[in-house]
């Protein structure tokens, strides 16, 4: 206590250990600011929207105007470029680049080390194999599974170009 002033204790706001904001210099010399995502500590542009339930690995980047849905996982070293939309429950492996303005549907899986071009549309549930390269402007549809009654399935006879064997409609 000094003179007539009493010092009253104040509540102290607890600050997490470690930096929350990071600055990175890009190839053109521009300093770009990122914040650390709460789930995984990945680098996320302040202009990106990443759901709290998504995981962004500490060495992954999510650029401006990108969106990452709930339950998605962005692996180590991956880069989600500007304007990309990642749906819910999407798995992005390690060291994957998803090009500018691409869309990845819910439940899709992008294998490690794959390269997805700009303006690509990947359908919900689609699977991209590891090390795959997808060209700019490509459209990847999910695998289609046709189901028929067991008596109506037809298999191609090996060695014959136009005949089918019976598993067939009996």
From TrEMBL:
Pfam families assigned to the protein according to its UniProt record, in alphabetical order: Hexapep (PF00132)
InterPro entries: Hexapep (IPR001451), Trans_hexapeptide_repeat (IPR050179), Trimer_LpxA-like_sf (IPR011004)
Region Disordered, annotated ranges: 150-170
Identification of the protein by name: Transferase
Organism, as annotated: Lacisediminihabitans profunda
